[in-house]
Amino acid sequence: MAIPKHDEVRLPLLKLISDGGVYTQKTCVEHLQEYFGLTEEEKNAMLSGGRSVFYDRVHWAKFHMKIAGLIDFPKRGEFQITSLGKEVLERNPSKIDKAMLEAFPAFQAFLEKSKKKTTSQSRSQVNISVAVIEQSEEESTSTPYEMIEHSFEELNVVLADELLEKLKEMDFFKFEDVVLDLLVKLGYGGSKEMAKQNTKRTGDGGIDGIINADRLGLNKIFVQAKRWSETIIGRPEIQKFAGALDGFGGNHGIFITTSSFSREAYEYVKLLPNKNIVLIDGQQLAQYMIEVGLGVSVEKVYEVKKLDLDYFMEE
After folding, report:
1. List of E strands, 31-119
2. Which of 44, 131, 217, 229 could make an S-S bridge to 136, C-beta 3.0–4.6 Å?
3. What is the DSSP code (8-state) at residue 218?
4. Is residue 105 within 8 Å of residue 113, measured between CB atoms?
5. Which SS3 state, helix, strand or coil, does residue 278 take?
6. First-to-last CA distance in the chain?
């Protein structure tokens, strides 16, 4: 048989871990290779990035079910079935397809973040997911360039989620270092060495750090960093931060969190007179890190080439 697609791997994978035990990717790949009866050639089929095709498909089957809440990652490199995953198996489904995943709110939120359309919308607006990398045989009205763009967007959303999980596990002082590194890469504080010299850590008055935006220290940016998981930061927290700026005579502030801000918090900073406070939530923080290459590395570069008409022009 051909190497199964990642959507075909989901149900057998969920059944494999249904006992509630903790599993690793390697263990599951070995079991599923036998389950699907893969040949040695199919087991050794590789992607251009150096990862085996089947390993990659098990990875995406696992990750999409994790997004939907059917699988949980208790520790790095380990995963197990959730109570929701067990409920799904009790329904005795014939397949865990895209339509089933889209019924879960967590997966709907993922699609919204990656700017995808759900199957409940017009058939003319075909959902392009990571499956396009596997050259899905489903009919699509998108051009190859659109498919690449959509896949790139989804991969970035996945990477941003992984970054956020790592940041939330991090020691608070290490998290502050990450925030400093990011601000430097975004152009604040001069060089990294200068930024470390000019940045003051302070727990006083609701300010976690002060960074000099110029060599002379005439322009100061006040930073508040909150390494929180699920807490939504509302207007009261931002009001406290704005009040803390007054205590330092400042009018430029950056509030960075791994969680999110309420609508009232965003509305409040817009109405502040004589103060400029930027709110950076977890998703934006992760996207900035991806943009500047902080905490991430390039796995694969694809070159899209076009015809060089100048080469064929007669002199």
Report:
1. 71-75, 78-81
2. 131
3. -
4. no
5. strand
6. 55
Could you count the other beta carbons within 10 Å of the beta carbon of residue 228?
14
CB of 171 within 8 A of CB of 163?
Answer: no
Q: What is the pLDDT of residues 283-313, one digit of tens each?
A: 999 999 999 999 998 887 878 887 787 888 7
pLDDT at 214: 64
Alpha carbons 201 and 195: distance in angstroms, whole number: 12
Would you say residue 1 has pLDDT above 80?
Answer: no
- Spatial contact of 217 and 194, defined as CB atoms under 8 Å apart: no
Question: Do residues 224 and 207 lie in contact, with contact meaning Cβ atoms separated by under 8 Å?
Answer: yes
More confident residue, 191 or 248: 248
Q: If you ran DSSP here, which 8-state letter would residue 257 be given?
A: E
Question: Six-digit token pair at 183?
Answer: 């601000």
CA 281 to chain centre: 13
Three-state SS letters, 30-42: HHHHHHCCCCHHH
Task: Tokens 């048989």: give the residue.
Answer: 1
For residue 177, give the 3-state DSSP assignment. Answer: helix
